[in-house]
Amino acid sequence: MAEAHQAVAFQFTVTPDGIDLQLSREVLKHIYLSGVTSWKKRAIRFKNGVLTGVYPASPSSWLIVVIAIMSTMYARIDPSRGTTMIVMYKHRYINLSQCHPWLKHAILSGKKIYLESVRPLLDDEQYKQMETVANDFKKDPAPKFQKHLKLKSWWATNYVSDWWEEYIYLRGRDPIMVNSNFYTMDLLYVIPTHRQAARAGNVVHAMLQYRRKLERGELTPLRALGIVPMCSFQYERMFNTTRIPGIETDFVQHLKDRKHLVVYHRGRFFKVWLYYGGRHLWPSELELQFQRILDDKSEPQPGELKLPSLTAGNRVPWARARLKYFTEGINQASLEAIETAAFFLTLDDEAHGYDPENIRSLDLYAKSLLHGKCYDRWFDKSFTLIVYKNGKIGVNTEHSWADSPIIGHMWEYVLATDCFQLGYTAEGHCKGDINKSLATPTRLQWDIPKACQEIIESSYMIAKGIANDVDFHGCLFNEFGKGLIKKCRTSPDAFIQLALQLAHYRDKGEFCLTYESSMTRMFREGRTETVRSCTCESTAFVRAMEDESTTNEQRLALFKKAADKHQNMYRLAMTGAGIDRHLFCLYIVSKVMGIDSPFLKQVLSEPWRLSTSQTPQQQLNLIDIQKFPKYVGAGGGFGPVADDGYGVSYIIVGENLITFHISSKFSSPETDSFRFGQNIRQAMLDIRALFNLKEKM
């Protein structure tokens, strides 16, 4: 997803303190710090497990477990079967393994997979050169680097994730707006109320309910294949979290239960308390508070209107301005209110959403969620909730703390709770009594000098340039969906990925390195791995589709071969046998040790001109979309990854709809998001035609 942009753009600033012949002291320092962080997390989790119980049992149930095991021993029954299930259920964070199990043989298998992935992109001479460089790397210095990674895998919880967060996200000095943050849309067809304050009231209340369940450990862990619990670590920082800018690197500030949020409306900031008498505010009470803000006619203070653009521009100017102008007085107090809030809410003065009469309505909606006006979202917050004046909603999410399925899980709960549990009155207001004795929201006060206002304006202009360059197209593909693809006995993901390969070849006349994001949450603190979707098998299929001399039977055979290859690669990535995160960590070790590696430098600098990601739907199954077909989500997307490439997020919605969120840059003469969307649509239809000729659908 958006991490593909960071993966080829990050700048490494660590230098070695000295190199030992056996182990680098600087690398050992990094490994030690990773381990300390891991053990701190384990201590916190152990405490939380004792206090709140572990899914699905409480601490008292362990007495039953002990008795059961003792009974099996007395009865001479093998207790391993029961013990296996107990270990699986023991803790929501304990999964298949702490880190990738293939680390021992990773260099040999990784080299083979990498060379396979670049073979369709290189001519014979280029491939031979790459093969030589890869073989040289395998001999030396790869074993030195691997030795350090093995040590880290023994000591740290996950040998990848902490470095991934630090070097891919937090050390990036470019703007995070568009380049890193991503967005999630509302229900596609339904707006449950057109009253802005009421929609905000229900949605915020539903988020508070979700946060309470999260803090109490009441959310059932998701399971891979319905069996293996997936790691829930990323959920911990969903609320009460802010990315804090620094000169060399940012850091993620996560706090315990926060009792307020900050609202932005027409250039003013308001602090709203979320509790009254020890309980959450009811939706009707929140509606009242938000309506008070909407009715407030006061003007922004000097410098206040575009203040959030500091979070949209380059990180270093923001970090310096924060140190100079926001560390004392009312500026410090107001900034602290924002950074310690549960989350950030924008009551937007625009109207957006899907309009079937306007082919570009999704495009404008997506761009608004992705970057807005460049000064009306706080891009550093874990997420910004946006509520438009027509009642439509969406979320802009900061990427360092989690990946899209995490925010998607919360979003599904919120939409279902909003529409099917809380509901609205006939007039569109939140249900419940109105407590008019609530204290009114508090305006945050600022004293922003001219010099700081100039920095704000500079950040705004940089962000505005980035936003104006985003060429976005939302494509609703409803000719067929998952239902028909399954009849073809093909993985829906493989079907779509091959369609993307065909569409890209038709669009540009060439193949490119393709990034598909796969989750690795079957491992503790796992995040993502890369599936390299452009393969020898997929390129053979695409060429056959464009070769008029090839029969449809031959094309179909090549399609099935390419689809099988893709499924196997996705399976490898998901189970820890991908190569890109391992290569990334080897590169980190090489830079810390001060050893130059032409192979790793080449691998980490290759542009992903087609970056793709599937956004999961129905993680919770709270809405029966067969019964309520209009209550489907529109999914979400991210900004363009390469200057001359495409970013594509796709969402398989039910049985008969697939949505594509396509981004590129206007400044590139090689790309056009609308054109690429049309190519995707035609590619999907052309592949379906192969099966129509083979069997009746």
TrEMBL record:
Pathway: Lipid metabolism; fatty acid beta-oxidation. Gene3D superfamilies: 6.10.250.1760, Chloramphenicol acetyltransferase-like domain, Choline/Carnitine o-acyltransferase, domain 2. It holds the Pfam family CPT_N. Belongs to the carnitine/choline acetyltransferase family. One of its GO terms (molecular function) is carnitine O-palmitoyltransferase activity. The active site is at residue 399. This is Carnitine O-palmitoyltransferase 1, muscle isoform. GO terms for cellular component: mitochondrial outer membrane. Keywords: Acyltransferase, Fatty acid metabolism, Lipid metabolism, Membrane, Mitochondrion, Mitochondrion outer membrane, Transferase, Transmembrane, Transmembrane helix, Transport.
